[in-house]
């Protein structure tokens, strides 16, 4: 008989999850949650691929809590993630960029896990068929914040859900993203390395294509929206200017600029090719634009597990304890040497 593959390239995602469970890296509950996230990503990939054909581009006519116009696909992708996670019966709280507040999954709050996610990040790119992505993080539910649906009112339940969700990234059990681009790639970490799975549309399954991703130690690619340059601090301007004449090794080859304007696409290229992605704070938005809970913390967990860094410019993103659900932080991530060089200017 063909011995079951012990992981490695070519392993289907479903098989890999079962192997992690057999090796007791995850329990059966988390295995179910991960499989359901894989299903949500396949459903969203299908929607994104057909968006232009099914009249799903354009605006949904509503705005989210961030005051951003919600694209039709934003709303649909959020529903996909919420429905799939509820149906697992293993999630206690789900928290989405698209929802005003975290939501307790009443039917099964006994679920062990809290899932935070951005169902379709970079959705402003959808109308131009530019890459987008889903981002998620999974925490253990905080046993001191389990609401009592029998006795507590909605305000108390909401308060406990927000407390349960606002955990530092150091507590993450799993972080991942799925990029919808020239191919559909699901990348995740369970705390022991970073693995990438490419969707084989002929099978309808994610197949391992990246076995233990490692970020190059350095890389001469920078990914910032330089349109904000005039609003940056003097230190950051000095840093950016230095990249034009070689960066840490002044007088050597200048850096190349690559900016998709979609975090998942820019991040994925950065961890594979090396370099740095940054969304700094500026005079208009001192904490930048990206959200801590469901963008910067999961991406930082992945970056660190791949041997890179995730920094606010002053500290590890994973050390930041969220005070607010939709809290923003300045974000710099990628090759260790590149992020350390940036931090020396902050
Ligand atoms: P800007 C997309 O809206 C997003 O949240 C990230 O995906 C992306 O990296 C960033 O904002 C782009 O922002 O201000 O450069 O358009």
Automatic annotation (TrEMBL):
<dbReference type="GO" id="GO:0046872">
    <property type="term" value="F:metal ion binding"/>
</dbReference>
<dbReference type="GO" id="GO:0005986">
    <property type="term" value="P:sucrose biosynthetic process"/>
</dbReference>
<comment type="similarity">
    <text>Belongs to the FBPase class 1 family.</text>
</comment>
<protein>
    <recommendedName>
        <fullName>fructose-bisphosphatase</fullName>
        <ecNumber>3.1.3.11</ecNumber>
    </recommendedName>
</protein>
<dbReference type="Pfam" id="PF00316">
    <property type="entry name" value="FBPase"/>
</dbReference>
<dbReference type="GO" id="GO:0042132">
    <property type="term" value="F:fructose 1,6-bisphosphate 1-phosphatase activity"/>
</dbReference>
<dbReference type="InterPro" id="IPR028343">
    <property type="entry name" value="FBPtase"/>
</dbReference>
<feature type="domain" description="Fructose-1-6-bisphosphatase class 1 C-terminal">
    <location>
        <begin position="215"/>
        <end position="346"/>
    </location>
</feature>
<keyword id="KW-0119">Carbohydrate metabolism</keyword>
<dbReference type="GO" id="GO:0006002">
    <property type="term" value="P:fructose 6-phosphate metabolic process"/>
</dbReference>
<dbReference type="InterPro" id="IPR033391">
    <property type="entry name" value="FBPase_N"/>
</dbReference>
<keyword id="KW-0479">Metal-binding</keyword>
<comment type="subunit">
    <text>Homotetramer.</text>
</comment>
<dbReference type="GO" id="GO:0005829">
    <property type="term" value="C:cytosol"/>
</dbReference>
<dbReference type="GO" id="GO:0006094">
    <property type="term" value="P:gluconeogenesis"/>
</dbReference>
<dbReference type="Pfam" id="PF18913">
    <property type="entry name" value="FBPase_C"/>
</dbReference>
<dbReference type="GO" id="GO:0030388">
    <property type="term" value="P:fructose 1,6-bisphosphate metabolic process"/>
</dbReference>
<comment type="pathway">
    <text>Carbohydrate biosynthesis; Calvin cycle.</text>
</comment>
<keyword id="KW-0460">Magnesium</keyword>
<dbReference type="InterPro" id="IPR020548">
    <property type="entry name" value="Fructose_bisphosphatase_AS"/>
</dbReference>
<dbReference type="GO" id="GO:0006000">
    <property type="term" value="P:fructose metabolic process"/>
</dbReference>
<dbReference type="InterPro" id="IPR044015">
    <property type="entry name" value="FBPase_C_dom"/>
</dbReference>
<keyword id="KW-0378">Hydrolase</keyword>
<feature type="domain" description="Fructose-1-6-bisphosphatase class I N-terminal">
    <location>
        <begin position="14"/>
        <end position="210"/>
    </location>
</feature>
<dbReference type="InterPro" id="IPR000146">
    <property type="entry name" value="FBPase_class-1"/>
</dbReference>
């Amino acid at each position: 008989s063909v011995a079951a593959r012990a992981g490695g390239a070519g392993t289907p995602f479903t098989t890999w999850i079962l192997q992690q469970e057999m090796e007791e890296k995850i329990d059966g509950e988390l295995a179910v949650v991960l499989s359901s996230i894989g299903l949500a990503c396949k459903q969203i990939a299908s929607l994104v691929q057909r968006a232009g054909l099914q009249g799903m581009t354009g605006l949904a006519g509503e705005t989210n809590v961030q005051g951003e116009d919600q694209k039709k696909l934003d709303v649909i992708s959020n529903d996909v993630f919420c429905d799939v996670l509820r149906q697992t019966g293993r999630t206690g709280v789900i928290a989405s960029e698209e929802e005003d507040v975290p939501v307790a999954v009443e039917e099964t709050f006994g679920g062990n896990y809290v899932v935070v996610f951005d169902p379709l990040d970079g959705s402003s790119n959808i109308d131009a068929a530019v890459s987008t992505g889903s981002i998620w993080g999974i925490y253990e539910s905080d046993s001191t914040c389990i609401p009592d649906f029998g006795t507590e009112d909605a305000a108390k339940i909401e308060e406990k859900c927000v407390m349960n969700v606002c955990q530092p990234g150091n507590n993450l059990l799993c972080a991942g993203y799925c990029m919808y681009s020239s191919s559909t790639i699901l990348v995740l970490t369970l705390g022991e390395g970073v693995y990438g799975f490419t969707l084989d549309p002929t099978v309808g399954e994610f197949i391992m294509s990246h076995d233990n991703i490692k970020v190059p130690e350095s890389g001469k690619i920078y990914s910032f929206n330089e349109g904000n340059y005039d609003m940056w601090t003097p230190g950051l301007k000095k840093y950016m200017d230095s990249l034009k004449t070689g960066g840490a090794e002044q007088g050597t080859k200048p850096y190349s600029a690559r900016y998709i304007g979609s975090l998942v696409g820019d991040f994925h290229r950065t961890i594979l090719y090396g370099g740095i992605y940054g969304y700094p704070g500026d005079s208009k938005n001192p904490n930048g634009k990206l959200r801590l809970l469901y963008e910067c913390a999961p991406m930082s967990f992945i970056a660190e597990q791949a041997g890179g860094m995730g920094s606010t410019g002053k500290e590890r993103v994973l050390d930041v304890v969220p005070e607010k659900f939709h809290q923003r932080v300045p974000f710099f991530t990628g090759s260790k040497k590149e992020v350390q060089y940036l931090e020396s200017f902050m």
